[in-house]
Amino acid sequence: MDLELTGRTALVTGGDSGIGWHTAHLLLAEGARVALTDVDQQRLDEAAARLGAGADRLVAVAADLTRAEDVQRLQREVAGRLGEPDVLVHCAGVTGAQGLFHEIDEDGWRSTLETDFFAAVRVVRAFLDPMRAKGWGRVVLLASEDAVQPYTDELPYCAAKAAVLSLVKGLSKTYGSEGVLVNAVSPAFIATPMTDAMMDKRARENGTSVQEAIDSFLDEDRPFMELKRRGRPEEVASVIAFLVSERASFVNGSNYRVDSGSVATI
């Protein structure tokens, strides 16, 4: 299927690994130009090198999305090197503060929301107006199964992702009539560096192998994931690529779950 992305420019945050990197890989394959961003320039350059595209189609710009001045610099540099993006895919995020509610202090809540919610607000604010001016744009924000099915040991993350879903719906109602379509994708337990770290920690705590930690996590904590495995980042990237394409021209304000059935409700 031709996604009609040739000539489009996309910004992908959280692009040095995982879902962000695989999304960039797929968008490049579909003919788009891509700007990658993440916090560490060296890791970002290595990620860009693995993508193998030329400087006319791929740039890597490090930025801390919790800092407004970094986001503003990112906007200027991407626009100067590739042009204003038509597509924004926001994958950057962290697990954040973990523990039961009474164990997490206010700083833990603030730092998690700063990265997992306010960063999304900042990047949309920075890149929205050129899409509105062109009358064509696609925005996909990464949410999570946790947004609608919260887990007691990571409530700051869950609350941030629920806020992302609300933001997506509000943006879609505000700007859809201007040609800027906004949607969410909600993965569950994808094989990324974030879940690698979670499983490494679980294995150490339980005195098991990492694979045994994954298997027990699926059985005990994600029983509705019917495929009984972690998802692959490219499986999420495929849904994102569809949503940012011309093929999704009637999709706006939706939340696409890529979760193997993890969310128990319809």
The number of domains: 1
CATH topology: Rossmann fold
Mean pLDDT: 96
Radius of gyration: 18 Å
How many helices in DSSP terms? Answer: 8
In this structure, how is the largest beta sheet organized?
7 strands, parallel
By CATH, the architecture is named 3-Layer(aba) Sandwich
Distance between the termini: 28 Å
What amount of the residues lies in strands?
5-15%
Q: Report helical residue fraction.
A: 40-55%
CATH homologous group name: NAD(P)-binding Rossmann-like Domain
* Name of the CATH first level: Alpha Beta
Could you explain the architecture of this structure?
There is one protein chain. With 266 residues, the chain is an alpha/beta fold. It has eight helices and seven strands; from the N terminus they run βαβαβαβαβαβαααβ. It has helices spanning 18-29, 41-51, 68-81, 106-134, 155-175, 193-206, 210-220, 233-243; strands at residues 9-13, 33-37, 58-60, 87-90, 137-142, 180-187, 255-258. Strands 3-2-1-4-5-6-7 form a seven-stranded parallel sheet, with helices on both faces. β2, α2 and β3 (58-60) form a beta-alpha-beta unit. α1 (18-29) crosses α8, α4 (106-134) runs parallel beside α5 (155-175) and α6 (193-206) packs across α7 (210-220).
